[in-house]
Amino acid sequence: MEKEPVFRKVVGGTTEDKRTFLSWTERQAGRTAEDLLKGKAVEPTPEEASLIVRAVDYANGIAQLYGSPRLFDKARVFVVDEDVDFLRERSGGYGVAKSSSLVDMVVVRRTQSLVAFAQSIAHECFHNNAYHAAQIRSDDTDKNYRSGLALYDRENDDAYFVKAQEAVIAELSYRLVTEVLAKSPEYKQELSDTESVKVWLKTFMQKYATVSVEQLASDLKSVDEVVALRGAHEMLKTLQSDTVSDDQKFEQVLESIADQLKEDRTVVRERRNEREALGAVIERVVVAANSPRVTKEVVFDEFAKAHFSGNYLPLARLVEEALGKGSFREISIELGDIKSKTTE
Ligand SMILES: [Zn+2]
Question: In which element (H, E) is residue 313 found?
Fold first, then answer.
């Protein structure tokens, strides 16, 4: 597969610096799984292999739609069934999936739910086929200054729009579940049973709520966050039987969800805080714009386009037309991770 280079733009440095940098990135992208994962990649099962194809095809289609010329190669998705160094997070724990645009690789850990497995792969592909730009500096040359929606200021360790980026990616990966897998024969039943269990739980909670209105609203939202439940069919059968009371059914199901969460946190949707933060900003833009042309979907699409095409300008224009001059910078901070803000 003929491939677009990871960095669509390289700034700074001399022509010679640029050449050295680009040949280094080429060498990185050519590294093998043996080298990177020390032989720990496992052969995907046929079902996993088919989900890898579907997740990558879906991600590439979406990325192209929003203006990215860089497609991800499915042969660069590697499955592991143990914690490997590559999956280590800054916090010290291990993630379920991770990608590196530089070495052009997605690594995903086998999870309990195949739906979540596919969602994680799409998520990492979306990091990979985003717009990337690099800046060559004399001290260290190998860091991004643009990676998708996120803009990094290495001087201060600031990352503008980094929350918006995770929110956009989480939303688009979830659509793989709702728009592709939920319609496919293999996952249709599990996902529609999961939805029915959620409806039952929410109806029960609304009917017998003994908590405050705010608490109830937040509890209902938590139920909405569930993606796929293992054994959803059995749960549903329990809920439909009349051998036990509704109270008991409710407790049984909640307990089972809690157990599944303990084993595999991918039972629920990704990046809730980031999605809520982005949702709040989009809402503000829509209300202020007060135009039938500016819907939530339109604003979301502009964030997605900026992520994949690299062009911030249409998004900036849309935001500033609605919220006023300077508001684009303000939301880049609000939806960012800004360390140097302490003096404000
Ligand atoms: Zn991510």
Answer: helix 313-323
Q: What is the pLDDT of residues 201-237, one digit of tens each?
A: 999 999 988 889 999 999 999 999 999 988 899 999 9
Task: Measure 169 CA to ligand 1 centroid, in angstroms.
Answer: 7
Q: How far is the CA of 160 from the centre of ligand 1 (A)?
A: 15
**100 C-alpha to center of ligand 1: Å?**
11
pLDDT of the residue at 142: 54
Query: 94: CA distance to ligand 1 center in Å?
Result: 14
Q: Nearest CA to 303 among 99, 135, 166?
A: 166
pTM above 0.85, yes or no: yes
127 CA distance to ligand 1 centroid (A)? Answer: 7
Q: How far is the CA of 123 from the centre of ligand 1 (A)?
A: 6
N- to C-terminal Cα separation, the chain: 49
Neighbours of 133 (CB within 10 A): 16
Residues of the chain with pLDDT under 70: 1-2, 138-144, 265, 341-344
For residue 37, how far is its CA from the centre of ligand 1 (angstroms)? 20
Per-residue confidence (pLDDT) for residue 273, from 0 to 100? 95
44-48, long-range: CB < 8 A, 24+ apart: 44/79, 47/114, 47/186, 48/79, 48/110, 48/114, 48/117
Cα–ligand 1 centroid distance for 269 (angstroms):
12
- Determine which helix (DSSP H) or strand (DSSP E) holds 250, and give its type and residue range: helix 246-263
Q: How far is the CA of 86 from the centre of ligand 1 (A)?
A: 15
Distance, in Å, from the CA atom of 316 to the CA atom of 307, rounded to the nearest integer, reads: 13
What separation in Å is there between the alpha carbon of 337 and the centre of ligand 1? 14
pLDDT in tens, 118-146: 999 999 999 999 999 988 876 655 556 89
CA distance 35 to 271: 31
